[in-house]
Amino acid sequence: MDRRGAGEVQAAAHSLAGSVLGRVNDLTDELVRVINEQNPGYQQLHVVPEADLWQSCHDNLERVLQLLSQGCDGADRVAQFYDAARATGQRRAQQRLPLDDLLRSFRIGGRMVWQALIAQARAEHVTDTDDLLDLATLVWELVDALSSQVAAAYHVAERALVRADEQRRAALWEGLLQGRASDAAFAYEASRIIRLPVEGPYMAVAAEGRFATSDLTETLGRKLDDSGLRSAWQVRANALVGLVSLPGCDTAELMKALPAVRGAVGVSLVVDGLAEVHTAYRQAVLALRTVPHGKPAVVCLAERLPEALLLSSPELTGSLVQQWLRGLLDLPDEERRILLQTLASWVETGGSATRAAQDLHCHRNTVLNRVRRIEALTGRCLPGGEIPIELALVVRALPFLPSRRRS
Question: For 123-147, what is each residue's pLDDT tens digit?
């Protein structure tokens, strides 16, 4: 605009915009009609009431025309006309209208303002082409500035909504895992939010939180979706939790998908409906605890019931350990490790020195010598053949003993 003088262009803008401002209501009616015709997002989503659309169109048209008619000298003066754009951006974000649709409506509005100014120029016989070209530049600079304000306000409101949604989702998951789904209203709300059925068989999954990422939950969800299983996943402070709806109680596809998790994974028994998923969650956590530390594995509670019993009853575990391992646990680390390993192999092979020797890669007599050493330390006889259930349980408890008492 320097080549012709900003004053002449401003004068033309003031005159034309002032005239158009007097019929802003008619221009608003036309803009609403065009948006509904050319911007299908408004009609398809039905999130912006007609009265709201009309008012925001009116306020933003008015602000553009006021800026043109009254001048826009100084940043502070321009900024005071951004209120309508900011309010529109915030409101449309809260209504979940896509930002692309919102910005498209502003471009349509800018085009209508320009068309109205051209029509007014013709009515007033303003025919200077350079003036009109410079006025077009000014109009689109203002529309771009207002669009930037709209987008900025939209993003601020969108971030606030995301935080609120995350907090609501986290609270909902806490309610599910604490048993609140026994209340029908809560169960149906949870079903709507996490998109899982209220009724039907469920299994819960618990995994180590250090491996939990949004990419992992998306991968798991996609794998299960492809297998016809619906699931929902939540990353908590120290664990990844999953709820899986199992039509027909078919667990095979679930077990195929879970190795995608790098660490240890626990899987519950099957429970009935969202009302029981808190029980399934506790079971999945218990199954997870039966995996020795640092060992990646997918385990079902159904396969680890003895270990789960021991973990659930530390008093029972402590009593069995004292009865069967008391002197053995006080040995130096290396000797204790060897003897506990021998005891585990002895039990697993049904008291067979030959098979235990093969398992331990040593001579049969070495196994028998170690067994006699264990018997001397514990005061217990280690029979061959049928192993006492108490001794079998003690061996299963070995991975869960406090670190100072296991190898």
Answer: 887 666 776 777 888 888 888 989 9
